Write the structure tokens for this entry.
Amino acid sequence: MPVGLYSIGPVNRPIHSGDTVVLCAPRTAALLGKARGYLGSGQCSTGTDPLLKLVVAVAGDVVDVGARAIAVNGRCLGASETFDRDSKGRPLPHVARGSYRLKRGELWLWGPATHSFDSRYFGAVESADVTNIAQPFAVWPAAAEPAFGSGPCPTS
């Protein structure tokens, strides 16, 4: 997510696509992230920092995961290649390639950085696990918006 200041508030409404949320990574992902240095030490039960991610899909949305891109409801999401190896060449577990229709209470998270540790690597998360909603206050570069393309999406 862009570096800057965010106003952090309670989850006092339904979470929508386009919201920026705060949550602890799912346990397995958090332990991998901690061991490999993807996540810093923090207040989550796994001893890691919480994540700040953008919600790009909610219940009823279809997420198509391919090696080179992810599509949400047929719209290609930028910076969404799923890597098989991390920046140090280690095998990187990720969700299986395929199509996922999100169930009630599920969210698909994305970060605008190409190598963001997000739902590509740990799948959908439960909305009940979101601890806060964040609003960008002053960020550099400008606040992340999902970069949906209009052309063909190389998900296969």
Remarks:
- Helices lie at 27-36, 119-122.
